[in-house]
Structure formats: structure tokens, C-alpha cells
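[job 4471] stage=fold_predict status=RUNNING
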Amino acid sequence: RVEPEGTSRVVAGNALRLTALTALPAPGRLVWVDSFFPGWRVWVDGRPSIIEPYETAFRAVPLSSGEHEVGMRYEPRSFFFGLALALTALGLSAALSARRLSQFSRR
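[job 4471] inference complete, writing C-alpha cells
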């Protein structure tokens, strides 16, 4: 949905990303009727932009008048933090295991 009266068309999308083409006669916003949740990133015409909560539950992207390509991706920081933590733990575990194996092989 585009406010004020404008048009939008989703050209690609799945649960974690979407691309929409919009046209607005005046400055407004693209409202995506899906849960607003931290971790969504947005680009308008290839440049990073902001996502605002709309009516406390949905996502909205402010847009100037004219035609735009809006891309959204779900990239939660918590996922990347957890991945980094898991890889660090795996690396430490491998290093400790290699150290113990080298100590046993010397005996």
C-alpha cells in the first residue's frame, strides 16, 4: 500500500527479502502490512533508507514523490552475533582439541 494514493508492485520477494516498484504523486510512504521487527534493512533506489513503524505494528518506508525501487531484507544483528559467537567457540574447541592431541602424540 502506498500513501497518499499511489501505486506499488512487488517484483520479487520471499519471507526474508522483497523488491517493490512504487510511484507517488506527492511525498508519502510505502506501507508493508507485515510485522515491524528490528532487523529489517531497506534501500530506496539503491541507497540505504529507514523503516518506521506504522500504526505500531507494520513497516513503512518514507518516500519522495516520483518512481522508486524499494528493496527490503531481513538481516537481524542477533543472527550475526550468534553466528560469530558459535564460530569463535568452534575455533577455540578445535584449537584446544589440537593441543591435546599433540600432547598425547608426544608421549
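[job 4471] summary: Strands lie at 2-3, 7-13, 17-24, 28-35, 40-44, 47-49, 52-54, 58-63, 66-74.
[job 4471] exit 0
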